[in-house]
Specification:
- The protein has helices at 22-35, 51-60, 68-91, 102-110, 119-123, 142-147, 159-174, 188-209, and strands spanning 11-16, 40-44, 95-99, 134-139, 179-183.
- With 216 residues, it is α/β, with parallel strands linked by helices.
- It has one domain: P-loop containing nucleotide triphosphate hydrolases (Rossmann fold, 3-Layer(aba) Sandwich).
- A five-stranded parallel sheet has the order 2-3-1-4-5, with helices on both faces.
- The radius of gyration is 17 Å and the shape is globular.
- The structure holds 3'-deoxythymidine-5'-monophosphate and magnesium ion.
- The site of magnesium ion (MG) has 2 residues, from loops.
- The site of 3'-deoxythymidine-5'-monophosphate has 10 residues, from helix 4.
Length: 216
């Protein structure tokens, strides 16, 4: 028995600015893939429930201050603390949908325009983490984001920061493979259909991709 090994799952990342609809689309994608018979997990970063995540949460709420590089490394550590379990789940056949990942990590920190915190510097601690098989970037204009409602009360939720983040996402994704830019200004249903097509195509390529790779 067992001459046929378990087919691995896929690592699917959803990225985008605030108000792009990431969480709704992750939920729709989870339901779609489950209906197709896949075992699916849906996780998000930051994971605010771990000890490191609690430090991040209090920073984002503005209850505490943190030095820019220091908080950056905590966001990265918050991914490293689950890297092994992601690898194991995927090897055991689960597909994982991730709401924000290393791309948000690099871009939000670099958007602070701290002279010693470049996009290049910010990417370094991500090297070696599980590499997404596909990253869906939900692209939304500043105008559309504004229409969808005002900013929340957390750190980073302001116009100046969001527009720098948008520019940096564009710069970062020009250099990344396996990124699919989705026009997230369309209806929930239309965006969801497009995501389903891109993800199905990715799942069809998994055998050709081989084992889960690492970020470089
Ligand atoms: P949510 O609104 O999605 O909870 O994100 N962020 C996120 C970083 O600065 N670095 C990271 O590594 C990650 C994953 C983006 C809260 C904010 O945290 C930012 C928005
Ligand atoms: Mg938010």
């Amino acid at each position: 028995a067992g001459h046929e090994s378990t087919r691995r799952g896929a690592l699917i990342v959803v990225e985008g600015l605030d108000r792009a609809g990431k969480s709704s689309q992750c939920e729709k994608l989870r339901d779609y893939l489950s209906e197709q018979g896949h075992t699916v997990k849906y996780i998000r970063f930051p994971d605010r429930t771990t000890p490191i995540g609690k430090l991040i949460d209090s920073y984002l709420r503005g209850s505490t201050d943190q030095e820019d590089h220091s908080i950056h490394l905590l966001f990265s550590a918050n991914r490293w603390e689950v890297a092994k379990s992601i690898q194991e789940d995927i090897a055991n056949g689960s597909t994982i949908i991730v709401d924000r990942y290393s791309y948000s990590g690099a871009v939000y920190s670099a958007a602070k325009a701290n002279p010693t915190l470049s996009l290049e510097w910010a990417w370094q601690p991500e090297i070696g983490l599980p590499r997404p098989d596909i990253c869906l970037f939900l692209n939304i204009s500043a105008e559309e984001a504004a229409k969808r409602g005002g900013f929340g009360a957390e750190r980073y939720e302001n116009e100046a920061m969001q527009s720098r983040v948008r520019d940096l996402f564009r710069t970062l994704f020009e250099r990344q493979e396996d990124v699919s830019i989705i026009d997230a200004g369309k209806s929930l249903e239309d965006v969801s259909k497009e995501i389903q097509i891109v993800v199905s195509e990715c799942l069809g390529r998994l055998d050709a991709i081989g084992p889960l790779r690492t970020l470089g």
